[in-house]
Amino acid sequence: MNRNHNVIIPALLAALLAGCSGGSTTPGATGTTPVLAATTGSATSFASVKWGGGGYVTGLIYHPTTANVLYARTDIGGAYRWNATTSSWTPITDGLGFGGGESRFHGAESIALDPNNDQLVYMVTGMYTFEGNGRIYMSNDRGTTWTHYDLPFPVGGNNPARAIGERLSVDPNNPSTLFYGSRTAGLWKSTDAGHTWAQVTSLATLQLTNDQVNTMGGWVAGVEWVMFDTSTKGTGTPTSTLYAAIAKDYADAAGLASTLYKSVDAGATWTPVTVPSTVSGYYIPHAVRAADGTFYVAFSAGAGPGVAGPGYLYKFSGGTWSLLANNASAGYGGVSVYGTGSTARIALGVSNTWGSGQVVQLSVDGGNTWREIEQGMPHTPAGGAGGWVDDIEIDPSNPDHISHVTGGGVVETRNASAGTPTWSDAVNNLEETATNAIVTPPAGAAYKFVDSAGDIGTWLQTDLAVRPTKGPSNTWSNGIAADVLWSDPTFIVGSGVLNSSSTAFGFWSGDGGNMWSNFAKLPTGASTNKAGTASIVATSRSNIVWAPANSVPSYSTNNGSRWTATNLPALASLGWDRGYRLVADRKNANKVYAYDSGGAFWGTAGKVYVSTNGGHTFTLSQGSVSANLAPNAYWITSMAVNPNVEGDLWLADGNAVYHSTDSGATWTRLNGFASVAATGSTAQLQGASAIALGKAQAGSPYSAAIYVVGTMNGVWGVYHSDDGGATWARFNDDTHQYGGIGALAADWNTYGRIYFSGTGRGIVYTN
């Protein structure tokens, strides 16, 4: 189960450092005009490296009348549209509106569809409520292109209770009217298709501040969903009757009398609905309205992810509540209905179950009797961890097709009526892993790269189209960092954290990833400093230098049986994680470089240290001091070495690119890259946040192609140079932005191929 918490925080904190606020236009150009022209050969294709799922899909949204129009929203990886022809998912949040400075809008909190127009999609996004106000995106072509507007309230697509909903609802009779149930600011209404919003003060006027939310435990669920009580559409008259569910946290703070409210005048006034006493104060994660006006309402004691029990399912009709099912030890995450009355088919997602597979209950007689249709049934691939069945949907065009979300993607059956339904993962091209680091080996190695990723761990990718199988651990863990020995890429080292026990570990392989061993011991700091601001390098077989987060790096000469601290200075605390970034010179095993980025923009200037004895002792590069490197967070800085030339270093300090040809003794700042200040809801566009070197273009004057994630002339993207940085060209385009780019590596077998991580979008590669 991939919760994706640990891996998204660095990008979030970097965004906060950059300065997030409200507005929606891309900033204008600043900085030195770069030279662009001589370099050619931008990427011609972008494709996802195969993993399959890997993250929390928080909601599935079907169009009610058009077959096979289905969307999936995720907590950190944007949104997807189902392609029935190819049985795969199409990512729809990779382009404009989801670039550098916009990573937090890959947290999709709610999606709503217009039942009158199957091309129209609305999506509300924002990663965490404390970051500031969210955005609403709208598309008239099923998510191929988007426009967006800033919202006047915070959004928390990766906050707890993120599968609750849908919070956004379109009036079927008057589709320009939208309602939104916010977490911290009550109920909101738009009468112009989401362009402008006003709080529905007749329900509540309370708008919680971050300080108030913190005193309430750090998050609130707020208004959980809004539902129109109608089976009509397109009349032009606003629907008069609608319901809103309110979590107890906000209801208590706002002085509301119930967790369910009803309006009979299109939202002008509201009256409390008394819920059964057994579920007083419970969350109401999902409800569904049948065509005959009957509501099926799920109540659970927990908010999710992994909605905790007890759980209750009630039928609500004519003002009367009827209990249909309950579970003392698990929650009811989702409910879906097909048909009406005594023959209604009801699917019930039973959440927060562990160890014996996912649990789905099905009734075909309106809830009178139930049978289990997933736990213990055949599943491809085999297994099923249980847990996060927090939304479930019956296909409106095929009642035998039932899908539900999990912490690792989407699971479905297409023969729900069978005595033994068969289930399979529906995750083809849905890639929501969150990579911390990527390292590529020299040309000719038996693998493409090593991926260190949150929650799924560390893996060697041998085939870009096949899920990897070689890694140090197949248990739930965070991969933090890795390195390969350039002179012998069968030697691989890395570090990670076992999530179940929060135990740090380091590991190595001497045969290209077939067999792995854990380091016998950990260096000082590694067991307690487990953040992603860490790096590790191999200088020769058995010789390793490891820089845990917030710690002085240590070296080992015997594959981690013993560690000795280097002489690098201790890092001053800045209130959050920082660390040394290490790179090994690929031509001289004695040379190792350590980069202290300063930790934050309020930290000290960046510095580079150089070792000439395999990383045992280091000397400060006075040239790096003279270069006046900008202080910045670890996550928006980078250093890379040209493996073809000794002492040839490249550095991105968050603002600019620097080059050294003398092992870091002196540094030259390149013109062109420059940060652009935050504007509106777009955070600062970093001038240069990641750098990687790969195979050179044939005939190039420089021995490596250089790739930089950064900003030139106010335009953020990936830039590349074939002539040692003399000229640059943009490598990506506006349709391939992925909510920003974090980890970056380049291939040494194929010119023009890079590997990079989007925000919760797995790893993408180019040709």
UniProtKB/TrEMBL annotation:
Secretion signal span: 1-29
Similarity-based family: Belongs to the glycosyl hydrolase 74 family.
Acetylation is among the record's keywords: no
Organism field: Massilia pinisoli
Keyword line: Carbohydrate metabolism, Glycosidase, Hydrolase, Polysaccharide degradation, Signal
Name of the protein described by the UniProt record: Dockerin
CDD domains: Sialidase_non-viral
GTP-binding recorded as keyword: no
Superkingdom, taxonomy of origin: Bacteria
